[in-house]
């Protein structure tokens, strides 16, 4: 079973888009809100990044929303 973790922040359109993509694709996900569920330093320990959201599939960093969307498109082609 696929596990998706989305690390986002408030007022982030791409964070919302990532959650919507999961809902459309009927994929369960865990959403983690910056400063409520995690500190930015904790996320930097996992991955070096510059943008939000940061998305992990089965604990592997996929990247942000654009990379996540491309990941889904590749999965659908198989």
Note down, in words, how this protein is organized:
- The two termini are 17 Å apart.
- The chain has helices at 13-24, 40-46, 65-77; strands spanning 4-8, 29-33, 54-57, 60-63.
- The chain has 78 residues and is an alpha+beta fold.
- Strands 2-1-3-4 form a four-stranded mixed beta sheet, with helices on one face.
- The chain is built from three helices and four strands.
Keywords:
single chain; 78 residues; Glutaredoxin; four-stranded mixed beta sheet; 3 helices
Provide the fold topology.
Blueprint: E1 4-8, H1 13-24, E2 29-33, H2 40-46, E3 54-57, E4 60-63, H3 65-77
Parallel strand pairs: 1-2
Antiparallel strand pairs: 1-3, 3-4
Total number of helical segments?
Answer: 3
Report the structural category.
Answer: alpha+beta
DSSP summary, beta strand count: 4
From the 3D coordinates, which CATH architecture would you assign? 3-Layer(aba) Sandwich
Distance between the termini: 17 Å
Strand count, sense and barrel status of the largest sheet are: 4 strands, mixed
Indicate the proportion of strand residues: 15-25%
Widest beta sheet: strand line-up: 2-1-3-4
> What is the level 1 CATH name?
Alpha Beta
CATH superfamily: Glutaredoxin
Radius of gyration: 12 Å
**CATH topology (level 3) name:** Glutaredoxin
Shape: globular
| Arithmetic mean pLDDT | 92
What is the number of domains?
Answer: 1
Q: Can you tell me the residue ranges where pLDDT is under 50 for at least 5 consecutive residues? A: none
Element-by-element helix/strand order: EHEHEEH
Helix content: 40-55%
